[in-house]
Amino acid sequence: MKNIFKYTFLTFIFLNIFSCFNDNDDSAIDGTEIKNFVWKAMNAVYLYKSEIIDLSNERFSNDLEFQSFLNSYESPELLFENLIFNRQTVDRFSFISDNYFELEQQLNGITLSNGAEYNFYLIPGTIDQVFGIVKLVHPNSDASAANLTRGTIFNKINGTPLNTSNLSNLLNQNSYSLNIALYDDNETDIVSDDQILETSNLISLNKEAYNENPIFKHLIFNLESSKVGYLMYNGFISEFDSQLNQIFGEFKSENIDNLVLDLRYNSGGSIQTATALASMITGQFIGQIFTKLNYNEDLQSNNSNFNFLDQISGNPINNLNLEKIYILTSNSSASASEMMINSLKSYINVVQIGDKTLGKSQASQLLYDSPNLSRNNVNPNHTYALLPLIAISVNKNDENVPSSGIEPSINVIENPNDYGMIGDFNEPLLNTALMAIQGLNRNSNNFSKESLLIDYNNPKKFTDLMYVD
Fold first, then answer.
1. What is 115-206's CATH number, 2.60.40.1120, 2.30.42.10, 3.40.50.720, 3.40.50.2300?
2. Nearest-angstrom CA–CA distance, 129 and 93
3. The pTM is what?
4. 340, 398 in Cβ contact below 8 A?
C-alpha cells in the first residue's frame, strides 16, 4: 500500500499525545490491546477527528479513564464504529479488518477474477428477486474466452434464482455458471411491466489471477463537424502511465477537436496519475495547482499541492490543450475520478454525462498496530488493521466533492434493455456525448435506476481508494 503521509512526523505526534497512556498488559493479547490501537490510530490520523468528541486530545485526563472508556466497548469493531463521523452520509468508507494479510491482498489487487463485472437489478414487481447484467468483460480473461459479452442478462447462478440475500455468496465462488435470460420490455416504456425470461443457455466461468489494464478502449470518431477521441479508463494506475501518454500522443497527432473520457467504471487510484492525465487533457496550465490534499488538524504540515505537469517518467507529456471535455460517469465513478471532474472544472468546461457519481473524494491509508502505524515492527499479537479516511482532495478553489456525489450535466442511466457495446457509436452514454458535441439532443431513456438498481457486496469493494504514490 502506498504511503500517504510522512511517517516521521506522524510518529512524533503519536508518541507525544500518548506518552501518558500505558498498555495494561504487554505480554498477552486481549481486546483492550486492540482497542488501544484503534483509538490511538484514529486520534492520530482520522480526517474527521475534530468532529468526534471521543477523539479529542483532551478527552481523557489519565490512563485509568482512558482504559475505562476502552472497556466500555465489547469489541474493537464497536469502538471503531463509534469513532466514525456520520457513517450514512459522510464517511461510508473507513473500514476495520481482523486480518490484514487478506486486506493487503485485496488492496494490492491480488484477487481472483473471471474477468466479468456486473450490475444487479430488482426484477420488476418484486422486492428481493434479482437479475444481473454483464457490464464489462475484460480482454484475455476467462469471461472473454467463454464469449461472454456486455449486456448479457442472467437470473440464476448454478441454477439458483438470484435474490438480495444469496447474491454475494453465489458470486464469491471461484467457479460458477450463469443461467442466461432475456429482458422483455413488452414493447412499452413502462418498467413495471418488464419481465425476465429464462432460457436453457449456460455460461461457465472460472476465477484466476488477472492483471487488469485500466486502459480498456480508445478510438477516434470522425464526425462531420469535428474529430473526437474516446477513452474508457477504468483505474488511475501508475504502472500504465506511459501507455496512457502514448495514447494521448495518438490523439495529438490526429489533431482531435474533442475528447470523451469514459470514467463510468473508474473507482479511483493514484493522485499522481490523475494529475498526469489532467495534464494530458490540458497543457496550458503547467505548474499551476491541479488539486490539493488536506489532512486533519494535527497533520497540517502534510497538506500537499499537486500541480499540472509537463513530464511523466522523464518523458514529455502529450497534451491536447483542450478547453472543454466530456466525461461519462455512473455511481461507480469515485475518488480520483471525482477529483478529476472537480479539479478540472476550475480550469475548463467539463460536461458530465451519465449518472451521479459515488461521492468520495477522500484518501485512505492502511494502518497497523506499530510505533508509526506502518507495517514495520507491527504488533505480533494480533492481525487487526484499519483503513480510515485520512485526507480529502479539493480543487484550486478549495471546493470538495459533495458526499452525495456530483450531479451530471446530462442525465443518462444505463438501461438493462439497451446497454450497448463499449466504444460503439450508438452506445447510449457515448452517443449522448457525440450528439452533444454536434449540438444535437439524444432521446433520453425512461428507465428508473433509482427503483431497481441494487447495491451488493462487490468483490472489488476496496478499489474505490485514492492514494499518493
1. 2.30.42.10
2. 27
3. 0.86
4. no
